[in-house]
Amino acid sequence: MSTVIKGGTVVTADLTYKADVRIEGGVIVEIGPNLAGDEVLDAAGCYVMPGGIDPHVHLEMPFMGTYSADDFESGTRAGLAGGTTMVVDFCLPDPGQSLLDALKRWDNKSTRANADYSFHMAVTWWDKQVFEEMETVVREKGINTFKHFMAYKGALMVNDDEMFASFSRCAELGALPLVHAENGDIVASMQEKLMAAGNNGPEAHAYSRPPEVEGEATNRAITIADMAGCPVYIVHTSCEQAHEAIRRARQKGMRVYGEPLIQHLLLDDSEYSNPDWDHAAARVMSPPFRNKLHQDSLWAGLQAGSLSCVATDHCSFTVQQKRYGVGDFRKIPNGTGGLEDRMPLLWSYGVNTGRLTMNEFVAVTSTNIAKILNIYPKKGAIVVGADADIVVWDPKRTKTISAKTQQSPVEYNVFEGKEVTGLPRYTLTRGYVAIEETTVKTREGHGQFVSREPFQAVNKALSTWKELVAPRKVERTGIPASGV
Ligand SMILES: NC(=O)NCCC(=O)O
Ligand SMILES: [Zn+2]
After folding, report:
1. Which of 87-96, 145-154, 310-319, 455-464 has the lowest mean pLDDT?
2. Ligand 1 atom closest to the CA of 151, numbered from 1
């Protein structure tokens, strides 16, 4: 049985050309003119692109005394509806918990996934056991990324010495550290001050986490990576201060990757002034939304290539969960959704406005992260041999985003009312047509874990260079007698 996507224009990160695409056994087997197959999908007027990869989501995540509301079933269904065919979730060990025990929990949760997925492993504490288990995680469990939180003091936060130790271990193992970069000590102090002054509403969440706090932490994370000799990926880069640190590091030749979220590109801090408590609390996430100048900086980074990927950090909570924080903004569960809307919004506000080319769109929604995660071209590409994770993108289809029609069970959508033009006509996950316009035909359990090999190239290059330029004792002859 073969499926042919017929009459479309293939758009990759580098190329745009007319061709049909033939799929067998979940894999692309032929690309060319006038192909025939048992099942034909009409792609006339559409762009045939690699399915989106969301680098950063939190499905059924234990966090701030509750669990994020989307699980692997609804989260991956939402992704597919919006053209995203793979998500990368976070395995989050409790403090003191074995990384491998935590991974068993995540393996159980993900059995219901409709689309392929992978995990980043979080480093939430540090000792010899974590050091040793990191090797098993990389060599045997197919995970080559470790996330570190510089925020959430007293919960997930790790200190500089722990980060340096973990980054150094990443350098040895060929792994990539990820960082949530906000200065957790300063945030905690500012939160206390705000509360003491009676500032307990959701807007105080944003006041407690200004851009400087993110910029400082981003600089620090980059410095630690430089000293440890590894690349680093900064998640949810929200402001010019953090972007500037990333830009500067890249100009110095460092492998530093920055990831804005679709939320930070499109929503600004005026959301927190909304008189409706529920509205403002629904938008509480870390880092918070910023003003328009920061948004311009993020768009410029995508255009110039100083920022690499657009993610969602999808971490949705119901209205009732958000209300845990009535009277104390510190207890509002942090996070917003976006999985279903990332690609249509980025197309509408990026490609349709001329801010991004179609090829740049593919790069920042799929190909760049596939390369960063070391799964390219199995994912993130339209080439023979790649997984047939494909979105047939109809640039004319439109809709108004609404919680009423979304896949997520949450009662609201932070993008409610936004019009999008450009939506999937079909979304295929390893050749299976899971979405046909508004018809959702996802198959629970179809999704498979995507194993990722350690990075040989970047880490090897960095360690070779580091060894070459390491400080060396100067050997001297005829050293004079001590003057003491
Ligand atoms: N970003 C956010 O507010 N929630 C998800 C957890 C995290 O990554 O910080
Ligand atoms: Zn984070």
Report:
1. 455-464
2. 9
> What's the 159 CA to ligand 1 centre distance in angstroms?
18
What total of structural domains would you count in the chain? 1
Q: Is the CB of 206 under 6 A from ligand 1?
A: no
Residue at 42 is within a domain: no
* Residues 136 and 106 sit within 8 Å (Cβ to Cβ): no
Looking at the domain assignment, is residue 10 inside a domain?
no
Q: Is the CB of 180 under 6 A from ligand 1?
A: yes
The protein residue with its alpha carbon nearest to ligand 1, atom 1, reads 286
Query: Is residue 473 in a domain?
Result: no
For residue 196, is pLDDT > 90? Answer: yes
**Average of pLDDT values for 47-72?**
96
CATH number, position 274: 3.20.20.140
Those residues whose beta carbon sits under 5 angstroms from the ion ligand 2 are 180
* pTM score of the predicted model: 0.96
The alpha carbon of 455 and the centre of ligand 1 are apart by a number of angstroms equal to 26
**460 has a pLDDT exceeding 90:** no
In a domain, 226, yes or no: yes
Bridge partners, residue 392, by sequence: 48, 426
Can you say whether the dihedral through the CA atoms of 429, 431, 436, 440 is positive or negative?
negative
Range(s) of the domain holding residue 128? 51-382+394-421+449-461
Looking at ligand 1, which residue's alpha carbon is closest to its atom 7? 286
Q: Output b/e per residue, 249-277; b: 16+ Cβ within 10 A.
A: bbeeeebbbbbbbbbbbbbbbebbeeeeb
For residue 103, which amino acid is it?
Answer: L
Tens of pLDDT, residue by residue over 200-246, are: 999 999 999 999 999 999 999 999 999 999 999 999 999 999 999 99
Q: Which atom of ligand 1 is nearest to the CA of 58?
A: 5
Nearest atom, ligand 1, residue 149 CA: 9
